[in-house]
Amino acid sequence: MRIRREEALPVYERLGDVRERAVTMGKIADILQSRGDLDEALRIRREEALPVYERLGDVRLRAVTMGKIADILQSRGDLDEALRIRREEQLPVYERLGDVRELLVCRANLAMALQERDQPGDRQEAKRLLTLALVSAASLKIPEAATVEALLKKTK
User: Residue 13 to residues 5, 7, 16, 22: CA-CA distances in angstroms?
Assistant: First the structure.
């Protein structure tokens, strides 16, 4: 049984469960983003989800949300801001938490943005980040290791 947004959100609001409401809004933003409604997806993430995670002190969900904001910005071509978010808002959080999987994903996303920007030094930095991501993916024995390896081969 699927619960629709119109059903779930009022329940969370009635219960005062702001975290679950924010998580649900993030799922709605995911759908909107996949449908190409980047403006509304970005608005939801910035105005409805992010402030809740900040108020609750949930640094992990805040970092995940910032990464999704960076995804939207990157798809719009705002590479400098996407890179800033990944470097300053995501990477340090995953390093501090010791979240190896999120760290390798963040490094790979950062590398792809650097490759897309393609300014002096970007390719070398992308290669370094992808090498770190590949080591982590191989140690975790996850299927994404092959994807990271393919990305690394493209940087040479």
Answer: 12, 11, 5, 10
pLDDT in tens, 39-49: 999 999 999 99
For the record, the structure tokens of 59 come out as: 């640094």
Contact in structure between 52 and 19 (CB atoms under 8 Å): yes
Integer Cα distance of 105 and 116 in angstroms: 17
**Measuring CA to CA, which residue among 151, 141, 66 is closest to residue 108?**
151
pTM of the model: 0.86
Q: What angle do CA 58, 37, 147 make, to 5 degrees?
A: 65
Q: Where are the alpha helices (DSSP H) in the chain?
A: 5-15, 18-34, 38-43, 50-56, 59-75, 79-84, 91-97, 100-117, 122-140, 144-154
